[in-house]
Amino acid sequence: MRALDANGAEVIGLASSITNARAACAQAGPACIPVACDLSDLGSVAAAAEYIRISHAPLDGIIANAAVAALGIATFDAASPDRRRSGG
Length: 88
Fold this sequence. Notes:
Elements: H1 2-6, E1 12-15, H2 18-28, E2 33-36, H3 42-55, E3 73-76, E4 84-87
């Protein structure tokens, strides 16, 4: 984000909360616009998309850099009634 901001791009920094978005944008540069977008909350995603749709020029690109959670490995047990068990 910092390189984009430094080269005059309008950058919208999305994060799971407005606090996190503001923190990321503070590191990127003064023109970065923070927007909350919690991917586990469809309403939050819809609100972020609507904000971008009505508030900004055409979207030239998206950089997706989401964290990946370590959720373990799902395995299947043929003897189990629901055939699932957790592994890790």
